[in-house]
């Protein structure tokens, strides 16, 4: 079990505390396994009525997967470590599915950085999940910045945001705050960090049968501090819907170039730094995911991630961002005009026959 995941039980609530602050709680395989083990243990325990996941640090709930591990394994001579990389994604996606369909209230305190894999352990099913944001929340699905795509079920939850917000967030990897998250339907309530101690006291002492309602009631006095109407996404919604409604990243980029507005030009400048190929793959992923189930999205993403490492774009992205830190990735292809339909389609080819897919048992 991971030294970075601390579990405890109080007041019939299972607490999961991520405790890897120096790495912003980036998920390792051991951490994924520890969280999974706790959730499976508590799922059928009648003495556990809810689960609460949070961090030991205000800096981050979770910054994502351990991308340095991805790079080290992906660039080394094939060894047993490559199997660990395969295990990581299979088990992480299975954890995302477990959380999404968890039968008990699953409460996530999304304080600080919540990105990539951090979103995967917070964006669960609407019938059980309660997602809390604070003024410190920095939320994103920034995978295109490292030559990857918004995985961990990102295709599912981004494609179900209002209008084209998910497309915008997926193609740009932009960071949003509390009001934006609430407006996009990626969070449920706002609680200022000054009141987190009060929230913890509520969790420790309340005997209510409806814990989600109790937290909503607790958060109500602070709602005006982060109203969806205050969201930048709300103010930009008309532009976002108009600019990101197409099925071609090239056409979206051309439309942005013709628009001399501040938002359009800023967005274009951001996209020009991202992987052209993985932006195109992401757009296709989001369009497909809109009509798919959670399980089918995760199975598709598991195929896609294998293709990503085979292509090598993600390794170059991590090199530029984390290893050499030159922030000068040499994307392949280097320009949107060089990305073909066949290149994109290749990322959706089946890797395993249906009976052998590592996530074949997922339902719903």
From TrEMBL:
The lineage of its organism: Bacteria, Pseudomonadati, Pseudomonadota, Betaproteobacteria, Burkholderiales. One of its GO terms (biological process) is L-valine catabolic process. Residues 13-348 form the Enoyl-CoA hydratase/isomerase domain. This is Enoyl-CoA hydratase/isomerase family protein. Transmembrane segments: none annotated. It comes from the Bacteria. It comes from Undibacterium jejuense. Keywords: Hydrolase. Pfam families: ECH_2. GO terms for molecular function: 3-hydroxyisobutyryl-CoA hydrolase activity. InterPro entries: ClpP/crotonase-like_dom_sf (IPR029045), ECH_dom (IPR045004), HIBYL-CoA-H (IPR032259). Coiled coil: none annotated.
């Amino acid at each position: 079990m991971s030294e970075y995941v601390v579990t405890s039980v109080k007041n019939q609530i299972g607490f999961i505390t991520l405790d890897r602050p120096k790495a912003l709680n980036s998920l390792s395989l051991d951490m994924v396994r520890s969280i999974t083990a706790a959730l499976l243990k508590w799922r059928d325990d009648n003495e556990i009525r809810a689960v609460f996941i949070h961090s030991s640090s205000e800096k981050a709930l979770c910054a994502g997967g351990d991308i340095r591990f991805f790079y080290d394994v992906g660039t080394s001579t094939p060894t047993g470590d490559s199997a660990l990389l395969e295990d990581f994604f299979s088990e992480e996606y299975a954890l995302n599915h477990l959380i999404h369909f968890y039968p008990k209230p699953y409460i996530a305190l999304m304080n600080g950085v919540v990105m990539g894999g951090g979103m995967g352990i917070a964006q669960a099913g609407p019938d059980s999940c309660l997602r809390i944001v604070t003024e410190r929340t920095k939320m994103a699905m920034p995978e295109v910045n490292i030559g990857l795509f918004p995985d961990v079920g990102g295709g599912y939850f981004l494609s179900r945001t209002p209008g084209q917000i998910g497309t915008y967030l997926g193609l740009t990897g932009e960071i949003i705050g509390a009001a934006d998250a609430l407006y996009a339907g990626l969070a449920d309530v706002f609680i200022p960090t000054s009141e987190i101690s009060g929230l913890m006291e509520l969790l420790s002492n309340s005997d209510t049968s409806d814990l989600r309602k109790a937290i909503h009631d607790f958060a109500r006095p602070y709602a005006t501090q982060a109203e969806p109407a205050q969201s930048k996404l709300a103010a930009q919604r008309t532009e976002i819907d108009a600019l990101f409604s197409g099925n071609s990243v090239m056409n979206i980029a051309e439309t942005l170039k013709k628009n001399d507005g501040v938002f359009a030009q800023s967005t274009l400048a951001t996209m020009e730094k991202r992987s052209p190929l993985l932006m195109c793959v992401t757009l296709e992923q989001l369009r497909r995911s809109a009509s798919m189930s959670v399980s089918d999205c995760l199975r598709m993403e598991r195929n896609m991630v294998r293709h990503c490492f085979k292509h090598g774009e993600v390794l170059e992205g991590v090199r530029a961002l984390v290893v050499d830190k030159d922030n000068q990735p040499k994307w392949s292809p280097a320009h949107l005009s060089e990305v073909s339909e066949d290149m994109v389609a290749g990322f959706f080819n089946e890797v395993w026959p249906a009976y052998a897919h590592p996530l074949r048992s997922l339902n719903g």
